[in-house]
Amino acid sequence: MPRRVCSDLAMPSSSNFESSFYRKLGIASLALAAVLLLASAIAVNLGLSAIGSSRVNVNRTNAISRAVTDLQASVRAAETGQRGYLLTGQARYLAPYESARQRIPAELSQLSQLVREPTQAARVRAMKPILDAKLAELAETIALRSKSFQAALRIVRTDRGQALTERFEALANEFVETQQRLLANRVAEEERDTRLTTAAAAATGLLAFLSAVLGVYLILQQRSADALALYASDLERQVEERTAKLSDANRELDAFAYTISHDLRAPLRAMHGYADALLEDYQDVLPEEGRSFARSIAAAGLRMNALIEDILTYARMARDDVALRPTSLDLVVNRAQADLQTQAEGTAEITVKEPLGAVLAHPPALQQAVENLLSNAVKFMPPGSRAVIQVYSEHLEGRVRLWVEDNGIGIEPEHRARIFEPFERLHGMETYPGTGIGLAIVRRAAERMGGACGVEPRNAGGSRFWIELQAAEETTR
Amino acid sequence: MSEVPSMLIVEDNADDLNLLKRALKKAAVEVEYEVASDGDQALEALVAAVDRGQLPRVVLLDLKLPRRSGLEVLKWMRLNPALRRVPVVILTSSDTASDLTQAYDLGANSYLVKPVLPAALTAVVQQIDAYWLRLNAVA
Questions:
Q1: Read out DSSP for A353-366?
Q2: DSSP 3-state percent helix, strand, coil across chain A (nearest 5)
Q3: Beta-carbon neighbour count of residue A77 at 10 Å?
Q4: Is the CB of residue A402 less than 8 Å from the CB of residue A467?
Q5: C-beta atoms surrounding A368 within 10 Å
Q6: What is the CA radius of gyration of chain A?
Q7: pLDDT score, position A389
Q8: Closest Cα partner for A471 from A329, A323, A358, A394?
Q9: Could you say which residues of chain A have pLDDT below 50?
Q10: What is the model's pLDDT at position A232?
Q11: Minimal Cα distance from B15: which residue of A?
Q12: pLDDT on residue B95
């Protein structure tokens, strides 16, 4: 079963990303931006036409003001002409009166055409009879003067003309005041329209921009989330593939190891079996050399068998999935000791300082490692000496270190690292037999169990080998 | 041996077979035996024996065989009413092989580690004799 090793990868597992919710939101945002832009354009358009009509109003208002001012000027000009003539009796003083008299009706009619506002229009209508009466009065006084200064003066003294002028001026002033107020209103209106239009355009423009930015941001987020999800699922797929390949490789290794174990051993059995048979059945017939040859064949067979066993053990330890359990060091060491005693026939003295403690280990691997350490301790002795071995443990933080101390031949400093390599032997086969894989097995076993191993010199001669593993709370074995 | 015995040896490896024959001689096991060198041959021999009405006294069975494995032969034997009670001794190269456990589950009676030593062979032969005695006593 492939192990899922990337389950703690920071994957965007939210369903929002998977259903591309953010992309849809982003598109909606962009659509909103477009709508806002359109609204902005419409608002600006409306605003501009409003401003346009305000402007027209303002222009008209200005024209009206000018028209009424002209009218007032004309009326005063007419009066000035009349007074001048009345005073001097000379016709040239009548010139302003004459031109004004002709202008006034036209100006009044133009004014009444311009004015729309009802009260103003009423005022303009009210002006007409007054101006008509005024012109009539002026004409009358001028006509009288040409005949008699006194007669004209008499009419002037009635103030009839003055009253008409005053009435006209009052109307005209009211009109002008109102007109100025209207102008102010219209100008304010125009300004307000301009401001509103600007504000609306700015606001919708800004909103459109923000929506657009948000939309783009959301879409990009979605993109990168999609890419990440794709990458993560791709990664997961790769991991699953590799894990499957690895377990395939492990299965192949197992099958291979099993085949090696069986098929290589068959000829070895034959070799060993025939050599033994030769020795047993033909002992009397064989000369000593012949017997020696037969013994050598048997011994070679045994060595080869041991080598195959060790290689297989070493190869099997390369596998990853080693489940660690709390394991009693005491039980492991006792069993290793028992196996060794049967082999060594009690030529070694092994002292175990109990309790050794419990570690997290793979029991078969630990057993193998301890047996190798112990058998080494017994084997590598100076000829004729008795092996005295001490086994004890040291408790460190969260770890337990098992020491195997011997009084053997020791290891020079320059070799201390080498000896844990496979096939590294420091001595010839004749002096100390062995496969050269024992310590490599110890090291690999230690590493597989999350620990370490090593060797130190012993002051009194010999070596102190150690293997260190994670401490366990309690023992189950 | 009291009766005219017969033994079926199922072994494909020539050297293992030679050494086994020598061990039989050394252990003074004077039996007539047949040799089958693969699983199919073993089944043929057993069928012929049943037809003859002459069951083998013991079957020495190697597990790693060409064409049909020793475990299959054993399974077939235990399903066959005539052969169900014939004792089977497994010939194995290692006494820790998982095949051995499987063979016991399928009804093997004993085992011998190759290369077979005469002493081990003698012990097994005694077990077989005892087995048949018990069986005949019950019958």
A1: -S---EEEE-HHHH
A2: 70, 10, 20
A3: 19
A4: yes
A5: 23
A6: 61
A7: 92
A8: A358
A9: 1-13, 16, 475-477
A10: 87
A11: A270
A12: 63
Are A208 and A37 in contact by the 8 Å Cβ rule? The answer is yes
Q: Which pLDDT score, from 0 to 100, does residue A254 have?
A: 72
Beta-carbon contacts of A77 under 8 Å, excluding residues fewer than 6 positions away, are: A96, A97, A99, A100
What token pair was written down for A348?
A: 């070694």
Q: Which residues of B touch A270 (CB under 8 A)?
A: 13, 15-16, 19, 115
Show residues of chain A in contact with B13, CB under 8 Å: 266, 270
- Spatial neighbors of B43 by CB under 8 A, at least 6 apart, are B68, B73, B76
Query: What is the tens place of the pLDDT at every residue in A278-318?
Result: 998 898 999 998 998 899 898 888 888 888 888 878 877 76
Q: Which two tokens stand for residue A143?
A: 């006509």
User: Distances in Å between the alpha carbon of A14 and those of A20, A214, A320?
Assistant: 10, 20, 34
Phi/psi of residue A473, each to 5°? -70, -55
- ipTM computed for the complex: 0.81
The answer to whether the Cβ–Cβ distance between A262 and B15 falls below 8 Å is no
Whether the Cβ atoms of residue A142 and residue A187 lie closer than 8 Å to each other:
no
Degrees to nearest 5, angle at CA A76 with A73 and A79: 150
Sheet hosting strand B58-62, strand order edge to edge: B32-36, B6-10, B58-62, B88-92, B110-113
What one-letter code names the amino acid at A43? A
Q: CA B134 to CA B122: how far, in whole Å?
A: 19
Q: What is the pLDDT of residue B2?
A: 39
Of A261, A266, A276, the CB nearest to B13: A266
Q: Is any Cβ of chain B less than 8 angstroms from the Cβ of A316?
A: no
| Residue reference for tokens 């192990």 | A3
10-residue averages of pLDDT along chain B (139 residues) = 68 92 90 91 92 91 89 94 93 78 91 90 92 84
Q: Are A78 and A104 in contact (CB under 8 A)?
A: yes
Pick among B11, B16, B18, B19 to test the A interface (most A CBs inside 10 A): B19
Q: Which of residues 281-300 of A touch B (CB under 8 A)?
A: 281
The beta-carbon neighbor of A262 closest among B15, B18, B93 is B93
Asked if residues A442 and A427 have their Cβ atoms less than 8 Å apart, the reply is: no
SS3 A393: strand
Tell me if B15 and A276 make a contact (CB, 8 A cut-off): no
Dump pLDDT digits (tens) for A417-457: 889 988 878 877 777 878 888 999 999 999 989 999 999 99
- Please state the φ and ψ torsions of residue A439, each to the nearest 5 degrees: -75, -30
**Where in A228-317 does DSSP place strands (E)?**
none
- Integer-rounded Cα radius of gyration of chain B: 14
Compute the nearest-CA separation of B8 from chain A (Å).
21
Helix (H) or strand (E) run with residue A411 in it: none
B-chain residues within 8 Å CB-CB of A269?
15-16, 19, 93, 114-115
**How many angstroms separate the CA atoms of A370 and A333, rounded?**
7
Kindly determine whether residue A273 and residue B64, on different chains, have CB atoms separated by under 8 Å.
Answer: no
Residue at A298: amino acid letter: A
The pLDDT score that the predictor gives to residue A415 is 87
Size of interface A-B (CB pairs under 8 A): 35
**Any idea what DSSP says for residue A471?**
B
Determine contact: B22 vs chain A, CB below 8 A: yes
